[in-house]
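Below is how a single chain appears once it has passed through the pipeline. First comes the sequence as given, then the structure the pipeline wrote out for it. We keep one example in the README because the format questions we get most often are answered faster by looking than by reading.
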Amino acid sequence: MIRFPVHNWLFWYLTVSSKVNLITDTILTS
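Resulting structure:
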């Protein structure tokens, strides 16, 4: 089992959530 440092998980989560927010914003505005 691969272990990731906590800051990597946070970075991944923030990156994904920001992309999801961009997609949802685009869908809502269109």
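The first helix runs from residue 6 to 29.

See the next section for the split statistics.
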